[in-house]
Each structure stands twice: as structure tokens, then as C-alpha cells.
Write a structure and sequence with these properties.
This protein is an alpha+beta fold. Helices cover 60% and strands 13% of the residues. Helix 3 packs antiparallel against helix 4 (118-156).
């Protein structure tokens, strides 16, 4: 009895995972063809050779289908360019948002007809610079943590577990 699954189509090929296997009788015994390579059942190493051919076929399929995806994900792991770009974008976003907030505060004070004395302006500038510096550091650290979490997810298959609340 041959070790194959007959195809219901017209080709007479058995298919497993898109690969063709064909069994037929010959003077050398029953023949099994795996990806164009024929093996005869009278050979003492028939099962070993067929198994090796099937494994090679499966490996070739994996190498052409899944390995490029894995390579792309591994290239993204611990990529300093990705981290630098994400960090720069988050800090720029924070700075733009902070500048917009400062502008809104200035407009609100002006709408009430208030002007700050030079001492008040200096105190506000110091406070503003401190807040902006702390916010920039916070944006940098938050982005670094998210990149680290993303890298861990790349290695664990995106389990969904994250330090930042399951993002």
C-alpha cells in the first residue's frame, strides 16, 4: 500500500501542503515520487529516503514562505534607527504641543489685558523651561520603554503583555 493521499483532481498526484507525491508500480517495486525525485520500495532505505525528501521539501517551503518574514522581524529587533526615529518624533511632538500650550496661555492673558512684569516673565520662563525639560525627558523615556516592549513582543510572538498596559 503506498504512503500517499490520492488527489481527486485529474492529475493523479497526491498533494500535501501544496507538494505533489505520486505512487506507481514498477519492476523495482512500488515507486513514490516526491518533488520530482523517485524512490522505489525495494530499496532498503526507502522510508528513510522518502522521509528525507519530504523534510527537504517542507524546509524549502518554509525557507521561501516564512523565513523572509522572520528575517524582517529580526531586523526590526533592537534596531537603533527605529528607536532614534521614534524618540525624535515623540520629543518633537511634545515640543510642538508645549509651544502651542504656551501660545494659548499668552493669548488668554492678553485677552484679559494682563501683562507680566519682567520679574514675572523671568519666573515664568524658568518654570516653563523646567517643565519643558521634564516633559522632554518623560517623552524620551516613555518612547524608549515602548520600543523595548515592542522588541520583547517581536521575540515572544506579540503576546500582548506590555509594561504600558497591554498596548
Amino acid at each position: 500500500m503506498p504512503y500517499y493521499t490520492p488527489d481527486t483532481g485529474t492529475s493523479g498526484l497526491a498533494t500535501t501542503g501544496g507538494r505533489g507525491y505520486r505512487a506507481q508500480q514498477s519492476p523495482l517495486g512500488e515507486a513514490l515520487t516526491v518533488d520530482g525525485q523517485t524512490f522505489y520500495s525495494n530499496d532498503g532505505r526507502f522510508a528513510e529516503n522518502v522521509n528525507a525528501a519530504i523534510l527537504r521539501s517542507q524546509y524549502a517551503n518554509w525557507a521561501s514562505t516564512y523565513k523572509p518574514i522572520e528575517d524582517e522581524l529580526l531586523a526590526a529587533y533592537k534596531n537603533p534607527a527605529v528607536k532614534a526615529q521614534a524618540t525624535q518624533e515623540s520629543m518633537d511632538l511634545f515640543r510642538r504641543g508645549y509651544a502651542a500650550t504656551q501660545g494659548a496661555t499668552d493669548r488668554r492673558l492678553a485677552s484679559y489685558g494682563l501683562t507680566l512684569t519682567p520679574e514675572q516673565q523671568e519666573a515664568r520662563t524658568r518654570s516653563s523651561n523646567l517643565q519643558q525639560g521634564l516633559g522632554t525627558v518623560s517623552a524620551f523615556n516613555g518612547t524608549a520603554r515602548r520600543i523595548e516592549d515592542r522588541d520583547k513582543q517581536l521575540l515572544t510572538g506579540f503576546s500582548g503583555i506590555s509594561r504600558t498596559g497591554g498596548e
